[in-house]
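Recall the central idea of this unit: under ordinary conditions, the amino acid sequence of a chain determines the structure it adopts. In this exercise we apply that idea directly, starting from the sequence alone.
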Amino acid sequence: MDSSIRIIIVLIFILLSVGCKDKKTNIHEGLQLKDGGKIIRLNPEKGRTIKLSEIVDEIQIVFLESSEDAVLSNIDKIEMDNDLFFILNAHDKLVYVFDADGNFKNKIGSIGQGPGDVLYPACFAINRQEKEIWLTSNFQFICKYDYNGSFLNREPLRKPLNLFFRDFYIDDNKDIYFHTSKFINYAPNNDFLCWNFWIMTPDQEFKTYFPYSSEVYPNGGSYFETFTPFGKSGDNIRYHYAFNDTVFIVDKYIVRPLYIIDFGEKKCPVDLSSISGDNASEYIFNSNYATFLNNVVETDNSIMFKYVITRQKYNVFYNKNSNNMVEGILENDILGAEIMILNSFNNKFTGYINANDISIKELASKYINANVLDKLKALNEADNPILIEIKLKDF
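Accordingly, the structure predicted from this sequence is:
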C-alpha cells in the first residue's frame, strides 16, 4: 500500500477516535445510554383527573405526636429504619425521630456551635449499616448521631465537594451519593464543579455525572428542584433530577436509563434541564407542553412521578408488572388535601398532609376506621402533619 494512503488512513482513524472520545466525555464515562430502559408512554390531557378512591386499596394514618420538643411545619424528607420514622422538618432542617405509631422519640442535632450542634443544616441521610443519622452542618461538615440522638462525631466533607447539595444518600457499600442541584457555591464559573450527580467511593474518590454549564447556572442561578432525587429500585439506587425525561439507575458506578418518559405530541421541544429556570418558565406555563417536573417514588410494584401542564401538577401511577397506568390531577376524595408523597416503605407510598388542610369526605369511612376518623376530626392547626401510607390497587 502506498505510504501516503497509509498516512491518510491513520489520520482518519485518529480523528474518528478523538471524535468518539469527545462525544463520550460530553455525557460522562459513567453513563451508558445504550443499555436502554423501559419506555413509559404517556397521553397527557389537560384537565384529566384521578380520584384517590379509584386507585387506592388501603390507607393507613400515622399521627405524629405534637409536643414542645416536636413542632413540625412542612416535611422535606422521610426515611424509615428499625420501625422508626426519620423526618426532616422544613422549618429548622433538623431531624425528628418517631416510632411506627407516631410517638416522638428524639430530635437529631440542635442549632449552635457546641459539641453535637450544627450550623445551617440542610439535609440528612441514614447509614443503615452503622445505624447512624448523618446531618449536614454549613455544607462543610457531616455530624453523625446514633438513632437515640446521641452525638458521635463530626467529619469534614472531603474536597472538592465544597458546594451546596440538595440531598445525599448512603448505600450498603458505603458509597455516598450527592445531588447538587445546579447551585454552585464558592466557585462561580468553575465547570470543574458543574455536575448534577456525584458519587464518593469508600476510598474517597469522586465520580461525576450529568454536566451543566456554569454560564447557564451561575452561582445561585435560578433552577427548579425535586424533593426525591434518590430511591431504591431493587438492589440498586435510583436517581433523577428535575425536568429530565429519564429516571436512571446506578449499578456499580454505571448510570443507565431505567425509565424513559415519553410525552408523545406534548413533549417539550427544549431540554428544560439545560436552560435556566427563568427561561424554562416560558415552557412550563405553556398549555401545549407537558414537562417532567419532580417527585419520583417507587415501590416493588409501582412507580409514581409528576409532570406539569400549565402550572398544574399531574400524577402518574405506573404498574411495573402489567405496564398499565393512570395519569391526571390527583383528587383526594377521601381526606380532601393534596398528599405530598416523599418515599415508599413496605411496598406502600408514604407522604404527609398538614393537619389544618384535612377535609374529611364521605368516602373516608370506607378506608379509615371510626376511631381514626375521630382523631382526624379533632386535629387543629397546632398539630403536627399526619403521615399517610397508601397501598395501590392492582391495575
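Confidence is low (pLDDT under 50) at residues 3-34.
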